[in-house]
Amino acid sequence: MNQSFQTHVAPIGAAAAKISTRGVDVFYGPKQALFGVDLDIPRNQVTALIGPSGCGKSTFLRAINRMNDTIAGARVEGEILLDGENVYDPVLDVVELRARVGMVFQKPNPFPKSIFENVAYGPRIHGMARSRAELAEIVVRSLRRAGLFEEVKDRLDAPGTSLSGGQQQRLCIARAIATRPEVLLMDEPASALDPIATAVIEELIDELRANYTIVIVTHSMQQAARVSQRTAFFHLGRLIEDGPTAEIFSTPRRRQTEDYITGRSAAQRPGP
Amino acid sequence: MNAPAPHRGGAAEARRRRRHRADRLLRLLGLGAISLALGLLGVLIATLVIGATPALTQTKLRVTFAISPELIDPADPGIGAYRLILRRGVAALLPEQPTTMAEWREIGGIVTGNTQFAIRDAVMADPSLIGRNLTLTVPVSDAYDQLGKGLTSRDTPPERRKLSDREIARFDALTARGAVSRPFNWELITRSNSRFPETAGLAGAIVGSFYMLLVCFVVSFPAGIAAAVWLEEFAPRNRLTDAVEVNINNLAAVPSIVFGLLGLSVLIGVFGLPRSTPLVGGLVLSLMTLPTIIIVTRAALRAVPRSIREAAHGVGASRHQVVLHHVLPLAMPGILTGTIIGLAHALGETAPLLLIGMNAFITDPPGGILEASTALPTQIFIWAGSAEHGFVSRTCAAILVLLGFLLAMNAVAIYLRQRLERKT
Lengths: 272, 424
Prior knowledge:
The complex is a heterodimer of chains A (272) and B (424). Chain A is 35% helix and 25% strand. By secondary structure, chain A is α/β, with parallel strands linked by helices.
């Protein structure tokens, strides 16, 4: 067993990386969910995290913007550097971190407020607009960038929850980019959506890449192949392999990766 | 494999019949329980309504009093032979004039005992009445009220009723003259407590209960929400907070009379707050309401989906912003409903109020939270223990008033919940 051994097919170097993690362990109480993850995430690219359920990919994602802090008993060890700055540094303010690292969740979760308020909330609490007009400008720009503005421009006062699932998810993306983050974390953003809404979201992710560093967790191999430039495969809390998406899907280095991508389970695998 | 089909045939048929019988039985049991509860409630309400009906009207006598100048001190209209004025006024309505002192006393006793003071007060308020006639419609005293409402039978042997044949004859003469009327008894809610049932009302108790609930709300609502928010959103999980949690739940189960003792010994005894006041009553009730509010608030906070908290954290809201901007507003309908139900509970609470002296005899509504007062449940308690016949129906009526307030508060709770939930 040498699962902890990790292979970096194409080292991108810490200098080019927007985010680099070194030896990240995550514990939920006594249970360890992540084991020594070293991963470099390049800027202005989409990095997909794939792996079977419970492999720790969501845990890793949530460690980046310290969302695990909100879970009682969760503990993170190791280093997660955002532009060379450790996000777990005690002097770093978690609120500022989350303004810089936006997040989109698996299930669309708009606030039970108006569409406008949903997008305006982040900029408002971070004091990003000096006037109502400036705030409205941010809201419109964010909705436009999320590809939702044309659909909702006549009903910005309608509750965010009145939109369809796909629209709600785009509203959540607009909300996340309204605070002008540098990184967008997406936790299976299309898993609750139908294929058409999924296609719209994927297209959007591709457009957003120009301005943001995106990390996306997905269960869909096709989605990972379609939207990401780099892919990291997690298994049982360890990072097994990462590299350019094309390589991971065509010539995986590791047996576990290949089995997962081709849909073979451990039981079907011939013995070592 | 030729096993018989397991879901067909006689055994399966028998099983199905048994299952259906059990289903029917369960449904019947439930229906029976509901019918029993509704039936008992119906009996209770019907008894109260029937009992309270006599208190809805009050027998009154219209009398013209001659305010003779020679019976009043010209220097001070507060001093005068008002009792004589009263007796002469009533006697003037009668066919036969009294001759003995006893007869004069009986005639004066037809109207309620406060009447001479009512005349005096009217003259003091307007001294120009001296030398003129003053016409008042005054309540008759309890025995005549009972007679007027037909609650005292004329067939009862004289030694077993309060009024003699002569007195009944006088009342009949007054009725024949058209001086007796029986209007709706607004005094029941516009007047305060009195020794005489015919002039006793609930105004003081209603105002007292209102002030008490006000104090209770002002103290327990913010404190309850703050405590619940801390416990639910901020408190670390350790032995101390576990102990706090257990004790809050215990506090909700403490018998209310214990809180009354606490109010008596600590609030009145140690801090020297004035006895019988809505302030002390409200504080004691808020001790009782606080655990209820904490418990419902925590439940309401817990019911707010985790996704909303995550969404707020995700855009960089700090912990207090998450709570104040998102979680609390969403929990508000539940909190308000629980609070109102807690307050309704407090409104009906009697035992602790008895201990802090809110069952005192007080004839004026309190002017503030620092004035002695009664409350609705203690007023009911006082009236229920009074000997006069008129208090029986008034007690029933007071219970109906209390139930009415409780119903109204619950209706407000339902209305608020539906309105707030529709908005979110």
